[in-house]
Amino acid sequence: MSGRMLELACTMIIPDRPTEAEMAAAVWRPNSYLPRIVASLDPGGEVPREAVIGLWRVNGSGRIVGEFIVNPDYDPVRWPDASVEEDYVEDSWPGLRRLLRWIGRLFETEPDRRG
Predict the structure, then answer these.
(1) Is the per-residue pLDDT at 29 higher than 90?
(2) Which of 57, 78, 82, 96 has the fewest CB atoms within 10 Å, measured from its CB?
């Protein structure tokens, strides 16, 4: 596993609460589901299923209810998203990013083939 793959796997954090923007958007989408997509894509444009991180359920009053529903088809390798996760990791676990990079370098080194 490369250092980048390890870093992605460790930083894929399931949201525990919607963002302010998601809560504002939910008001206009009662009785539906509100997707969280990777930040690099335009939500008004075409979004591949693999770029949808997951969904929030929106009730009839336009409020997000329940837990985040993870999209099992989301591909964080092809569609990495650092919009929320990056800040969350840095704020929640100081030094974790540095530790993950160090661990990743351990896996990237080539074995000594002398002999």
Answers:
(1) yes
(2) 78
pLDDT band at 50, cuts 50/70/90?
very high
Alpha-helical runs (H) found in the chain: 3-11, 20-26, 85-92, 96-108
pTM for the model stands at: 0.61
* pLDDT over 70 percentage in the chain: 58
DSSP structure string for 1-28: --HHHHHHHHH----SS--HHHHHHHTT
Closest CA to 21 of 49, 70, 56: 56
Task: Round to whole Å and give the CA distance between 104 and 5.
Answer: 8
Question: How does DSSP classify residue 33?
Answer: E
Q: What is d(CA 65, CA 63) in angstroms, rounded to the nearest whole number? A: 6
Pairing mode, if any, of strands 52-58 and 64-70? Answer: antiparallel
